[in-house]
Amino acid sequence: MKSLRKHITLLWIVFTSSSCFAQTASLSGKVTDDGEPLPLANVLFKNTEIGTATDIDGIFELTNIRAGDYVVLVTSLGYQPYQTKISLEAGANKTINIQLEASAQSLDETVVTGTLKPVSRLESPVPVEVYSPTFLKKNPTASVFDALQNVNGVRPQINCNVCNTGDIHINGLEGPYTLVLIDGMPIVSGLGTVYGLTGIPNSLIEQIEIVKGPASSLYGSEAVGGLINIITKKALNAPEFFADGFATGWGEYNLDVGSKISVSDKTNLLVGINYFNYDVPVDNNGDNFTDLTLQDRISLFQKWDFEREDNRLFSLAGRFFYEDRWGGEMQWTPDFRGGDEIYGESIYTRRWELLGKYQLPVKEKLLLSFSYNDHNQNSVYGDTEYLADQRIGFAQLTWDKTAGNHDLLFGSAVRYNHYNDNTPATTEADNIWIPSIFAQDEYSFAPKHSFLAGLRYDYDQRHGNILTPRAAYKWKISDNDIFRVNAGTGFRVVNLFTEDHAALTGSREVIIAEELKPERSVNVNLNYLKKIYSDNGTFIGLDASAFYTRFSNVILPDYETNPNQIIYDNLNGKSVSQGVSANLDIVFPSSFKIMVGATWQDVSNTENGVTQQQILTESITATWNLSYTFHALKLTADYTGNLYGPMRLPLLGDLDPRSEYSPTWSIQNIQFTYKGLNNFELYGGIKNLLDWTPNRGNPFIIARANDPFDREVTFDSNGNAVATPNNPYALTFDPSYVYGPNQGIRGFFGLRYTVF
């Protein structure tokens, strides 16, 4: 009897198990781009938690799926989303093949920067430009700072011919007007402004989002001219292992290495290392000064992603950055550091960062974001020492709420800033707390119309109450036509020495004319976005904008009133940045892709009724990228370049023989990438094809390079240099006459290895 019951029980288990398996199905397939496998494409069942990613061969497989009807959504950066309906019967093993269409500028990605919440780029009321790692690979560089040279309206500006530190200009506005974020955290500012865009392995970047125009109502005082948000990959989207290294003919070496590690079933770790080295002094322009600053840099990055119930977000990331850079006279060694025998500029930088996001375990969408960084800088500029420490803490809580036609966002933030240095401008350390609250409402008042209004309140103990309102209107004319209007105000407190290294380099005396007042701005931006899909498979995208920004109390360095001084003062007048910009993207069925952008801008300062073009600000810019893939050869060719129009340059006086305006100049590059080896990519090419450098047409670039300590300069009773037989132009040592890189033509070769 017991034996019979055992057999009946066994038969029942087998029957029920078979019935359970019979209720499930599987789906597999391949995702391609023009016949080529597309790895790391996301394959998801809409409104479910079912999903996976394709492997290196573009293959995916999903098993144990409950029978039923589903909508399959396939997405990948740089491609138009694809979706299709499928019906899975019990026990079926269905196979589908999917081909994604390239979207040259990726118009449909999810973006977060414009409104602080995830939204389709097409649905965002704030225009956001998005750039993927594929874009960065078209002209490989050792840092994001250099890679942005091929973004229309964005220009990396080198601020010193000796130390080669720089910042990012957006629409002609100086670097400090641009806020740099990492994963949405505003931890790159002050001392870190120069270094925030270096040391992040490009292979760990998910995408770069750029907003041109003020975003102070969401991000605070530093987002006056625009912002750059570097979004790092989640572990799910990252390869198991990658290594990318390249070298140039100038002796530059760059290495990125990273890995995804599964710590547990619900914990994933992403680790990356970037190392860059350049230690070969070069002086091609014959002034006995290094043309390119020597650098030894290492950056360590890690990001932890934790899986939680209901897909709530929890991530922690950290980065350590160290750099030793120097430039100066060719015979300089560290033994001369800080002395007055041989001129050199040496900068030791040590920086670490921590940032995280945690979605609270409640029904409402409450997200806590936090970050902290510590930055130490030990620098000498000739015999001038600059020692500085900065610590910035930030915490923010946001509540994302939808109520009818209103998409609401409420938030509160607090920012702590500690800064201390050894300059005359800092008599005691700053310890500043800035609490903030903000609110935003996007109201869809008609099927194709929405209006966004936002307001931020900050309390700064130095300047009191600060209000920054913002408004945006979006008209979705059709699925392929969108018109936007954005307006807002900005507020910025200037950190003089951390933002302008020209205040420390050279022999000019720094004069702070009065107590500097905060800068304020008003901005209006018009944007039109158009997509065209032709019958033959050609895609055309047009993104055009017109912008106007007016500043009051603007603080600019005055190089002209006294050639021996840099005078910092609030402008007694107005400063205006205005212009038009357009990007055109074309993708042909033949795999030929064109990306072209151009900007015309007028950036001027008006004081006492006199209007002048702002120094070191170009009138026109253009960028391009022409790409073609030879599929039979598994070879891709990329031709990239930029063009910049005339800039007014800082001269030292009426006798200065250097050109007052720069020429129209261009940096052009070509690269070939071979993908015929499993897991490997070989790439190489030539940078600066035209071998352009700024010393063309100029007698010299660095003034008095032969006398960097001004020992042979004669001054009058007012402290002005006077013309003498050995100084006929009445100059002092000054390396601030710089508007482009001194690095000429060079070849490069690299290798990428990726395991998915």
UniProtKB/TrEMBL annotation:
Its main location: membrane. This is TonB-dependent receptor. Residues 122-226 form the TonB-dependent receptor plug domain. Keywords: Cell outer membrane, Membrane, Receptor, Signal, TonB box, Transmembrane, Transmembrane beta strand, Transport. It is a multi-pass membrane protein. Residues 1-22 form the signal peptide. Belongs to the TonB-dependent receptor family. The keyword Membrane applies. One of its GO terms (biological process) is siderophore transmembrane transport. GO terms for molecular function: siderophore uptake transmembrane transporter activity. PROSITE patterns: PROKAR_LIPOPROTEIN, TONB_DEPENDENT_REC_3. InterPro entries: Beta-barrel_TonB, Beta-barrel_TonB_sf, CarboxyPept-like_regulatory, Plug_dom, Plug_dom_sf, TonB-dep_rcpt-like. It is found in: Cell outer membrane. The keyword Signal applies.
